[in-house]
Amino acid sequence: MDVNISFSRSSPLGNALLRWWEGLDGHREDRAQLRRAGSLTAVTLTPGFQRFYRFLLAYGLPEIRSDSQRDRLAAIAGVLAHIRQQDERSFPASMAGEGDKPRVSELRFKRLLESPAINDLLVGLRRTLPLVGHGADPSKLANDIWFWGDKVRKEWAYAYPWSATST
Fold first, then answer.
1. Which pLDDT band, with edges at 50, 70 and 90, does 84 fall under?
2. pTM beyond cutoff 0.90
3. Nearest 5°: phi and psi at 83?
């Protein structure tokens, strides 16, 4: 994974990603295509993803040659199309609910953490976003998808609101 790539708000690429995400409201067809795409291949084949990819290239994304990186970029576009509002908290923290019952069950969260492949992560995040009101921080979530691995899984595990009776 190229550690020079960052979608944080302080980076040019992160600013471009946010501009693209904010622009989806004006490009409803792109958003709809990306939202309907149920797999990485389906996302990649949408004109909306192709515009996303070229938009990021224009703002400094290096040409991506690795299939793994292409898949991660497709997952980012596919997931971000489902975000309707920004939530500054970490994604796992947004899974907390009112009182003792979290918005996202511990079992669903564990399954999300155990996503063996990026396509599984895409599917899991698409299913989880409605449970948190379609809110997330596009930059943070994009970085987490791009760098998905043990480090991010552990960060998510520490940020999730586990119940006091969890075993």
1. very high
2. yes
3. -85, 125
